[in-house]
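Forum: Protein Structure Q&A
Topic: Joint prediction for protein chains with partners

I've read a bunch of threads here and the consensus seems to be that you should model interacting components together rather than docking separate models afterwards. I'd like to see that in practice. Below is the full input, 233 residues plus whatever partners are listed. Could one of the regulars post the assembled result?
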Amino acid sequence: DIQMTQFPSTLSASVGDRVTITCRASQSISGELAWYQQKPGEAPKVLIYDASRLESGVPSRFSGDRSGTEFTLTISSLQPGDFATYYCQQYNSYSLTFGGGTKVEIK
Amino acid sequence: EVQLVESGGGLVQPGGSLRLSCAASGFTFSDHYMDWVRQAPGKGLEWVGRTRNRPHSYTTEYAASVKGRFTVSRDDSRNSFYLQMNYLQTEDTAVYFCTRGAFCSGGRCPGPFDYWGRGTLVTVSS
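Posted by a regular:
Agreed with the consensus. Here's the joint model:
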Protein backbone atom coordinates (compact mmCIF):
# COMPACT_ATOMS: atom_id res chain seq x y z
CA ASP A 1 0.00 0.00 0.00
CA ILE A 2 1.02 3.59 -0.57
CA GLN A 3 1.80 5.27 2.76
CA MET A 4 0.81 8.90 3.27
CA THR A 5 2.90 10.68 5.90
CA GLN A 6 1.20 13.85 7.06
CA PHE A 7 2.76 16.52 9.27
CA PRO A 8 2.52 18.19 11.64
CA SER A 9 -0.01 16.14 13.58
CA THR A 10 -1.03 19.23 15.54
CA LEU A 11 -0.66 22.89 14.68
CA SER A 12 -1.44 25.86 16.92
CA ALA A 13 -2.24 29.09 15.09
CA SER A 14 -4.12 32.35 15.39
CA VAL A 15 -6.82 33.90 13.26
CA GLY A 16 -5.15 35.57 10.26
CA ASP A 17 -2.11 33.27 10.27
CA ARG A 18 -0.85 31.55 7.14
CA VAL A 19 -0.84 27.81 7.74
CA THR A 20 0.77 25.00 5.74
CA ILE A 21 0.20 21.25 6.13
CA THR A 22 2.35 18.71 4.32
CA CYS A 23 1.69 15.20 3.06
CA ARG A 24 4.36 12.94 1.62
CA ALA A 25 3.57 9.85 -0.43
CA SER A 26 5.77 6.74 -0.19
CA GLN A 27 5.80 6.46 -3.99
CA SER A 28 4.59 8.40 -7.00
CA ILE A 29 0.87 9.13 -7.04
CA SER A 30 0.99 11.64 -9.87
CA GLY A 31 -1.31 14.45 -8.72
CA GLU A 32 -4.06 12.14 -7.49
CA LEU A 33 -4.47 13.58 -4.05
CA ALA A 34 -7.28 15.26 -2.17
CA TRP A 35 -7.47 17.29 1.03
CA TYR A 36 -10.42 17.07 3.42
CA GLN A 37 -11.55 19.14 6.38
CA GLN A 38 -13.37 17.50 9.29
CA LYS A 39 -15.00 19.27 12.22
CA PRO A 40 -15.98 17.38 15.41
CA GLY A 41 -19.11 15.27 14.96
CA GLU A 42 -19.28 15.92 11.23
CA ALA A 43 -18.38 14.05 8.07
CA PRO A 44 -15.26 15.18 6.19
CA LYS A 45 -15.62 17.67 3.38
CA VAL A 46 -13.39 17.78 0.31
CA LEU A 47 -11.47 21.02 -0.14
CA ILE A 48 -8.90 20.27 -2.85
CA TYR A 49 -8.64 17.47 -5.41
CA ASP A 50 -6.07 16.57 -8.08
CA ALA A 51 -3.52 18.18 -5.73
CA SER A 52 -4.42 21.77 -6.55
CA ARG A 53 -8.00 22.04 -7.85
CA LEU A 54 -10.36 23.88 -5.52
CA GLU A 55 -13.69 22.11 -4.92
CA SER A 56 -16.71 24.20 -5.85
CA GLY A 57 -17.81 26.45 -3.00
CA VAL A 58 -14.55 26.23 -1.07
CA PRO A 59 -13.04 29.64 -0.19
CA SER A 60 -10.02 30.72 -2.20
CA ARG A 61 -7.89 31.07 0.93
CA PHE A 62 -7.41 27.29 0.63
CA SER A 63 -4.85 26.15 -1.92
CA GLY A 64 -2.93 22.99 -2.76
CA ASP A 65 0.45 22.39 -4.34
CA ARG A 66 2.63 19.50 -5.38
CA SER A 67 6.35 18.90 -5.67
CA GLY A 68 7.05 15.35 -6.72
CA THR A 69 5.65 13.15 -3.96
CA GLU A 70 5.25 16.01 -1.49
CA PHE A 71 1.94 17.83 -1.30
CA THR A 72 0.95 20.91 0.69
CA LEU A 73 -2.32 22.45 1.79
CA THR A 74 -2.08 26.15 2.58
CA ILE A 75 -4.64 28.35 4.29
CA SER A 76 -3.60 31.90 3.47
CA SER A 77 -5.40 33.63 6.34
CA LEU A 78 -6.87 31.36 9.00
CA GLN A 79 -10.51 32.07 9.84
CA PRO A 80 -12.44 30.99 12.97
CA GLY A 81 -14.29 28.28 11.03
CA ASP A 82 -11.01 26.75 9.84
CA PHE A 83 -10.10 25.27 13.21
CA ALA A 84 -10.58 21.61 12.38
CA THR A 85 -8.71 18.43 11.44
CA TYR A 86 -7.34 18.08 7.91
CA TYR A 87 -6.58 14.87 6.04
CA CYS A 88 -4.84 14.12 2.78
CA GLN A 89 -5.86 11.10 0.71
CA GLN A 90 -4.36 9.47 -2.36
CA TYR A 91 -6.58 7.88 -4.98
CA ASN A 92 -3.87 6.76 -7.36
CA SER A 93 -3.77 3.11 -6.34
CA TYR A 94 -6.42 0.42 -6.01
CA SER A 95 -5.97 0.61 -2.23
CA LEU A 96 -6.84 4.14 -1.18
CA THR A 97 -5.04 5.64 1.80
CA PHE A 98 -5.34 8.67 4.06
CA GLY A 99 -2.73 10.62 5.92
CA GLY A 100 -2.85 10.56 9.71
CA GLY A 101 -4.47 13.99 10.00
CA THR A 102 -3.47 17.44 11.21
CA LYS A 103 -5.46 19.13 13.96
CA VAL A 104 -5.40 22.91 13.64
CA GLU A 105 -5.95 24.41 17.09
CA ILE A 106 -6.42 27.93 18.38
CA LYS A 107 -3.18 29.36 19.74
CA GLU B 1 -29.37 17.72 -3.63
CA VAL B 2 -27.04 14.78 -3.18
CA GLN B 3 -27.86 12.76 -0.07
CA LEU B 4 -26.27 9.64 1.37
CA VAL B 5 -27.97 8.10 4.39
CA GLU B 6 -26.41 5.19 6.25
CA SER B 7 -28.30 2.74 8.43
CA GLY B 8 -27.76 -0.58 10.15
CA GLY B 9 -25.17 0.30 12.77
CA GLY B 10 -25.38 -0.92 16.33
CA LEU B 11 -23.83 -3.09 19.02
CA VAL B 12 -22.58 -6.53 18.05
CA GLN B 13 -20.50 -9.13 19.84
CA PRO B 14 -17.03 -10.12 18.64
CA GLY B 15 -17.32 -12.72 15.90
CA GLY B 16 -20.74 -11.46 14.90
CA SER B 17 -22.07 -9.97 11.70
CA LEU B 18 -23.75 -6.75 10.67
CA ARG B 19 -24.98 -5.32 7.39
CA LEU B 20 -24.83 -1.59 6.72
CA SER B 21 -26.90 0.11 4.06
CA CYS B 22 -26.52 3.43 2.30
CA ALA B 23 -29.48 5.05 0.54
CA ALA B 24 -28.41 7.47 -2.18
CA SER B 25 -30.45 10.22 -3.82
CA GLY B 26 -30.02 13.40 -5.82
CA PHE B 27 -27.68 12.01 -8.45
CA THR B 28 -27.40 9.22 -11.02
CA PHE B 29 -26.21 6.48 -8.69
CA SER B 30 -25.17 4.10 -11.44
CA ASP B 31 -22.66 6.63 -12.81
CA HIS B 32 -20.45 6.55 -9.72
CA TYR B 33 -18.07 4.36 -7.78
CA MET B 34 -19.13 4.02 -4.15
CA ASP B 35 -16.87 3.60 -1.12
CA TRP B 36 -17.05 2.96 2.61
CA VAL B 37 -14.70 4.86 4.95
CA ARG B 38 -14.52 4.35 8.72
CA GLN B 39 -13.24 6.27 11.70
CA ALA B 40 -12.50 4.64 15.03
CA PRO B 41 -13.29 6.78 18.09
CA GLY B 42 -10.74 9.60 18.33
CA LYS B 43 -8.77 8.27 15.37
CA GLY B 44 -8.20 9.14 11.72
CA LEU B 45 -9.94 8.06 8.55
CA GLU B 46 -9.52 4.59 7.07
CA TRP B 47 -10.79 3.53 3.66
CA VAL B 48 -12.65 0.22 3.90
CA GLY B 49 -13.81 -0.83 0.45
CA ARG B 50 -15.13 0.16 -2.96
CA THR B 51 -17.51 -1.04 -5.59
CA ARG B 52 -17.05 0.25 -9.09
CA ASN B 53 -20.00 0.70 -11.42
CA ARG B 54 -21.36 -1.19 -14.39
CA PRO B 55 -18.77 -0.05 -16.99
CA HIS B 56 -16.21 -1.68 -14.69
CA SER B 57 -18.28 -4.81 -14.08
CA TYR B 58 -19.04 -3.83 -10.47
CA THR B 59 -15.55 -4.92 -9.39
CA THR B 60 -14.60 -4.42 -5.74
CA GLU B 61 -11.51 -3.52 -3.72
CA TYR B 62 -10.83 -3.83 0.00
CA ALA B 63 -8.43 -2.60 2.62
CA ALA B 64 -6.11 -5.35 3.85
CA SER B 65 -7.57 -5.02 7.37
CA VAL B 66 -11.03 -6.17 6.23
CA LYS B 67 -10.34 -8.33 3.18
CA GLY B 68 -12.00 -11.73 3.49
CA ARG B 69 -14.36 -10.52 6.24
CA PHE B 70 -16.22 -7.60 4.66
CA THR B 71 -18.13 -7.49 1.37
CA VAL B 72 -19.31 -4.39 -0.46
CA SER B 73 -22.17 -4.54 -2.92
CA ARG B 74 -24.63 -2.26 -4.64
CA ASP B 75 -28.10 -2.36 -6.13
CA ASP B 76 -28.42 0.28 -8.84
CA SER B 77 -32.17 -0.39 -9.16
CA ARG B 78 -32.60 0.70 -5.53
CA ASN B 79 -29.87 3.40 -5.49
CA SER B 80 -28.39 1.52 -2.57
CA PHE B 81 -24.94 0.49 -1.41
CA TYR B 82 -24.13 -2.12 1.22
CA LEU B 83 -21.39 -3.33 3.55
CA GLN B 84 -21.68 -6.87 4.88
CA MET B 85 -19.38 -7.26 7.86
CA ASN B 86 -18.59 -10.75 9.17
CA TYR B 87 -16.23 -12.00 11.90
CA LEU B 88 -16.31 -8.59 13.51
CA GLN B 89 -13.50 -7.70 15.89
CA THR B 90 -13.25 -5.02 18.57
CA GLU B 91 -10.88 -3.11 16.27
CA ASP B 92 -13.77 -2.71 13.81
CA THR B 93 -15.54 -0.37 16.22
CA ALA B 94 -15.95 2.88 14.29
CA VAL B 95 -18.28 5.29 12.58
CA TYR B 96 -18.79 4.01 9.05
CA PHE B 97 -19.30 6.60 6.33
CA CYS B 98 -20.82 5.99 2.91
CA THR B 99 -19.09 8.12 0.29
CA ARG B 100 -19.58 8.92 -3.36
CA GLY B 101 -16.56 8.17 -5.49
CA ALA B 102 -15.65 9.13 -8.99
CA PHE B 103 -18.03 9.51 -11.90
CA CYS B 104 -17.01 6.81 -14.37
CA SER B 105 -18.23 5.91 -17.84
CA GLY B 106 -15.23 3.75 -18.70
CA GLY B 107 -11.45 3.76 -18.56
CA ARG B 108 -9.52 4.79 -15.48
CA CYS B 109 -11.48 7.05 -13.15
CA PRO B 110 -9.47 8.49 -10.27
CA GLY B 111 -11.23 10.97 -8.04
CA PRO B 112 -11.93 12.08 -4.46
CA PHE B 113 -14.92 11.35 -2.24
CA ASP B 114 -17.03 14.38 -3.00
CA TYR B 115 -20.09 13.54 -0.88
CA TRP B 116 -20.29 11.79 2.47
CA GLY B 117 -23.12 10.53 4.61
CA ARG B 118 -23.35 11.42 8.29
CA GLY B 119 -22.11 7.98 9.29
CA THR B 120 -23.43 5.09 11.37
CA LEU B 121 -21.74 3.81 14.53
CA VAL B 122 -20.73 0.17 14.79
CA THR B 123 -19.66 -1.00 18.24
CA VAL B 124 -18.09 -4.43 18.61
CA SER B 125 -18.05 -5.42 22.25
CA SER B 126 -18.97 -8.29 24.53
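Chain B has no helices and eleven strands.
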